[in-house]
Hints:
- The complex is a heterodimer of chains A (277) and B (431).
- Chain A has 277 residues and is an alpha/beta fold.
- Helices cover 29% and strands 25% of the residues of chain A.
- Chain A contains seven helices and 13 strands.
- In chain A, the strands form three sheets. A nine-stranded mixed beta sheet of chain A has the order 11-10-9-12-8-1-6-7-13, sandwiched between helices.
- The radius of gyration of chain A is 22 Å and the shape is globular.
- Chain A starts with a strand and ends in an 8-residue tail after the last helix.
- The relative contact order of chain A is 0.16.
- Chain B is of the alpha/beta class and 431 residues long.
- Chain B has three domains: 4-68 and 104-177 and 288-353, FAD/NAD(P)-binding domain; 180-283, D-Amino Acid Oxidase, Chain A, domain 2; 367-430, no CATH class.
- Chain B contains 15 helices and 17 strands.
- In chain B, the strands form two sheets. In chain B, strands 3, 4, 5, 6, 11, 12, 13, 14 and 15 form a nine-stranded mixed beta sheet that branches. In chain B, strands 1, 2, 7, 8, 9, 10, 16 and 17 form an eight-stranded mixed beta sheet that branches.
- Chain B is globular and about 85 Å long.
- Classes of the chains: A alpha/beta (277), B alpha/beta (431).
- The interface between A and B is medium-sized, with 11 and 17 residues.
Amino acid sequence: MLHIVACIKQVPDTKIIKMNPKTNTMDRASAPAILNPYDAHAVEEAVRLKQRYGGTVSVLTMGPPPAVKAIRKCIEIGADEGYMISDRAFAGADTLATSYALTKALNKIAKERPIDLIICGKMTIDGDTGQVGPGIARRLDIPPLTSVKKIVEIDKEKGIAILHRKLEDGYEVVSSTMPCLFSVEKDINEVPYSTMPNMLRAARYNPHIWSVNDLEDVDKAQLGLKGSPTIVSSVWAPQKPQGGQMLDGKAADQVSQLLGIMLEKKELFQVKGESTS
Amino acid sequence: MPEKFDCIVVGAGPAGIACAYELAKAGVNVLLLERGEYPGSKNVMGGVLYRQMMEDVIPEFYKEAPLERPIVEQRFMMMDKESALTFGYKGLEWAREPYNNFTVLRAKFDQWFAGKAVEQGALLINETVALSCIVENGKVVGVQTDRPDGQLYADVVVLADGVNSLLAKSLGFHREFKPDEVALATMEILKLDKKVIEDRFNLEEGQGCTIELFGDATKGILGTGFLYTNKDTLSLGVGTLLSGMIKHKLKPHHLLDYVKNHPMIRPFVQGAESQEYLAHLIPEGGYHSMPKVVGDGVLVVGDAAQLVNAIHREGSNMAMTSGRLAAETIVLAKQAGDFSEAFLDRYRKELMGSFVGEDLKKYKDSTHHFDKFPQYFEQYIPMMNRAASQMFTVDGTSKREKQKKIWRDIGSAKEKVKIARDMYRAWKVMK
């Protein structure tokens, strides 16, 4: 029986968020808070492993009280338990301080039920760093496995996990000792439409909520803004790319025009071979 | 084994939420289903929330609900191409408790209202579409949703699924609309600085104003436009019966653009930034279009029951009252253990005996009448504008001469008789 913990985060929906043009920061009130899309795949993968091997899926998040909604979303996907650490002491944390706080919470969860696997999303869509997962692994001294696109086998008895890691031009097959931490790519799975029983369970579910005092062995200097060495020196909007070429006409004409351009600028499009026309 | 509830309410709009709130408060095990991402995400209205009917559900809601502005002034504009005859009422008794009505943005308000129902113990499930009612032996026993393992069972199902109620149609309660029973309204939310809004609409800080637009706002087609003040946005919209739109080959968004650029409206909205664009059907068939609202194990409330008073632009208030009355009957039905049509018919009687039924009956022929005789909007409003212009233009002509001119402008003796007849008819359908 596996115990898998997925670490998740509630984020503003950056697809529709507006930027404050004066400060170049996100206007968080302008977009609804959602479960980080990569994390949905992490939870889904955990649920699939549970279905394959049996066990329990827990989710863990750090955030303000409304983040309970993100945990409920994970319950909809099929997670069994939800844990949330929520305290003013955690506020303003960068990836270093966040991974520290989450590690302390994972230690507490592991005391209740030893953890075999931790799964994170590749990165969050509001921070885009992908650092928290590996940060947790280092603090727990377990192997961090990033860019995971397929889990081939989990053998708890032998303590071995076999998986595929995405590379620029393919993938590599990796065998790792367990426990270990995966951060997963979006294409690892499709998150299906949740079942009605899961929806009902999620609507009724109340997660375990811990404050900083519920965690053990915490060095408060490493939490929140105090524990965050990251300094944002400036933020700017990237310039919109100039130029581009629009194609007109019927679909068939556009395709042949496009092929012509691609062959003309082969290097740009990495087209191999010669034109047949 | 699928779960069974005391009651399932389909649709989290004003009717459905009011019903779920009252049921949960009375200790009934109620499930509220919403197809949108959250309650309010798919709901549209011009934006006037009536205080009394909302307070019947949650007393003193205005102390915490996300409202835009209390309305202290209601104006009515009879518009021609480049003129308008405006009248209105402003009263500061509306600026203080208990208030008369408020502007609201539904995405915020419905979410808050549904949250209150959840606090009372209702279970809310979003992003789920109810596809049909589950019927056993002629009795509604639950709903089939679009989710895997999606059957849900209940003693009674409340259909609050809006104007196009798929479920009421699936039960044969509803027939397809005729184009003269339903209006299509489009609206835009326009961002504008708070202070600018207050200056343009002559308001003290935080106060609100509504302007209803008639005549050229809809190019003379039966319908109305509206311009409402929110905190830092304006809601500008226009709606006409589908039949009118079809007859005049109009596209709804063209009509909205027309109003936005109308010389009587442009000064209000100039410089405002378009924030959102919404469109919705409004059931305006009134009393004659009401479907069957009660069956074995099922009740129909709100827009799904066509509860809209088009003449007074009321709907959300009727929706809430219908939801509340449905809940009252369900609580009694639960006590009696009887969810038959005969028992639930108490809801229909209560509804028709309330202001909802009374007003629907009062105006039962009005929409149809104004649709059938387009001259009210097409001819009489411009005529009123010409008369006002004639009377108030000081050009050395004596007032008696001006009155004669106005009288001549109305037309021949035959025309005058026709107008008198039309005014009598209008009075008859509105009285």
